[in-house]
Amino acid sequence: MATILIIDDDDAFREGLAETVQDLGYSPSEARSGEEAFERLRGRPAPDCIFLDFRLPGADGLAVLDTLRKTPGLQTVPVVMLTAHATSDNTIGAMRLGAFEHLTKPVGRDEIAALLERILSAQVGTPAARVFAEEARSHEPQLLGVSEAMREVQKRIGRAAGANSTVLITGETGTGKEIAARVLHRASARGSGPFIAVNCAAIPDELLESELFGHGKGAFTGAQAERRGRVEEAHGGTLFLDEVGDMPLPMQAKLLRVLQERQVTPLGTNRIVTVDVRVVAATHRHLASMVEAGTFRQDLLFRLNVIPLHLPPLRERVADILPLAEHFLAGAPSASPDIARKHLSADAQRLLATFAWPGNVRELANAIERASALAPGQVLTREDFAFLTATKDSADDAIPLALLELPLPQAVAQLERALIVHALSASGGNRAEAARRLGISRQSLYTRMAALSMSEASA
């Protein structure tokens, strides 16, 4: 049962609030002053929430809140400030010191019930949230989450860390596939070895073989010296192949041989290099469908998918949204280390918790950094995240009226052409990258461009 500490010298109000808290199914604890509250807390577990009045005998509410934020074990307990006369000064002062919410007396039962449900359901100040906050202080990559879905991912990573088998990480863009790979590497017996990451979608097809396997001097124009490949550099550690679904078919065959033989032959040489690497691959694509379409080798999928690891999208792990938001907010750049970190208001929390997050954790991190940088106050409100809903609203109205008037085949062709041109422009003409942006294979891009009579120049 959650414990709620009420600090207020108004006996009638304090006792009435305690009765309401108890009726709602929580355990109330009462104190008439800050000194009495700290005496009551000494040697006892931290409460799950504190209601704190501004005007108290001795140290006032702001001073008590300041002390709470400096006391080990009490720093993350959510504090709701109470006042009979709200002013800009006491409201801003409370929020700067990290108050969770600010209420003006009298406070209705429904408001108390909704507030406590929000606080406790978001696990703000609960032991689980404090563990999450402690984890967030690490400088190493971490796959953070308190939801059941992420707990299962963390358990599977722990089990996979004890083996040396190839791992295939799947999940939408922005779910943290590379972070999962780094966490797996660090937890494994290879943790002291190198972690070499290769983005298969970002390297032109003609250079990918040299990048992975290395080359000898004179192997091709511009190869003025021998170069070790990324596979060889990963010897004794982990090779992370990101966006492996974008690898061209000829390279897929060569990668399959490396996985089978654990040997590489640098381009333009007869030298055979034996390697000891663990391969972790990742993709946002559905590889089984690509196998059916003939764009991904089935035997390679079997070799990669020894230990499957799927990262759920953020919309399927709602319990992680607010803890992650607070984590990113705590790490957001600040103009001065002396400025108190910003906090999320109740309406901002509701928006973040109900937003679809198509870009997943990466989009959430960017949204928090943007709002934190531009918000005028210490408390981030729903208005500070208006760009999220504005993007959604504008996307709904993005289809030009002229396009709506065309016959369906002509409208689809015109839209497809525009999307391809935009993707090629955004990727600097790199067709592999453009295909990745469009969510199709490179061969499919070529086929579509041919069907639309799009040449290199017109694109």
From TrEMBL:
<dbReference type="GO" id="GO:0000160">
    <property type="term" value="P:phosphorelay signal transduction system"/>
</dbReference>
<dbReference type="InterPro" id="IPR025944">
    <property type="entry name" value="Sigma_54_int_dom_CS"/>
</dbReference>
<feature type="domain" description="Sigma-54 factor interaction">
    <location>
        <begin position="143"/>
        <end position="373"/>
    </location>
</feature>
<dbReference type="InterPro" id="IPR003593">
    <property type="entry name" value="AAA+_ATPase"/>
</dbReference>
<dbReference type="Pfam" id="PF02954">
    <property type="entry name" value="HTH_8"/>
</dbReference>
<dbReference type="Pfam" id="PF00072">
    <property type="entry name" value="Response_reg"/>
</dbReference>
<keyword id="KW-0067">ATP-binding</keyword>
<feature type="domain" description="Response regulatory">
    <location>
        <begin position="3"/>
        <end position="120"/>
    </location>
</feature>
<dbReference type="InterPro" id="IPR001789">
    <property type="entry name" value="Sig_transdc_resp-reg_receiver"/>
</dbReference>
<protein>
    <submittedName>
        <fullName>Two component, sigma54 specific, Fis family transcriptional regulator</fullName>
    </submittedName>
</protein>
<keyword id="KW-0805">Transcription regulation</keyword>
<keyword id="KW-0547">Nucleotide-binding</keyword>
<keyword id="KW-0238">DNA-binding</keyword>
<dbReference type="GO" id="GO:0006355">
    <property type="term" value="P:regulation of DNA-templated transcription"/>
</dbReference>
<dbReference type="InterPro" id="IPR002197">
    <property type="entry name" value="HTH_Fis"/>
</dbReference>
<feature type="modified residue" description="4-aspartylphosphate">
    <location>
        <position position="53"/>
    </location>
</feature>
<keyword id="KW-0597">Phosphoprotein</keyword>
<dbReference type="InterPro" id="IPR025943">
    <property type="entry name" value="Sigma_54_int_dom_ATP-bd_2"/>
</dbReference>
<dbReference type="InterPro" id="IPR027417">
    <property type="entry name" value="P-loop_NTPase"/>
</dbReference>
<dbReference type="InterPro" id="IPR002078">
    <property type="entry name" value="Sigma_54_int"/>
</dbReference>
<dbReference type="GO" id="GO:0005524">
    <property type="term" value="F:ATP binding"/>
</dbReference>
<dbReference type="Pfam" id="PF25601">
    <property type="entry name" value="AAA_lid_14"/>
</dbReference>
<dbReference type="InterPro" id="IPR058031">
    <property type="entry name" value="AAA_lid_NorR"/>
</dbReference>
<keyword id="KW-0804">Transcription</keyword>
<dbReference type="InterPro" id="IPR009057">
    <property type="entry name" value="Homeodomain-like_sf"/>
</dbReference>
<dbReference type="InterPro" id="IPR011006">
    <property type="entry name" value="CheY-like_superfamily"/>
</dbReference>
<dbReference type="Pfam" id="PF00158">
    <property type="entry name" value="Sigma54_activat"/>
</dbReference>
<dbReference type="GO" id="GO:0043565">
    <property type="term" value="F:sequence-specific DNA binding"/>
</dbReference>
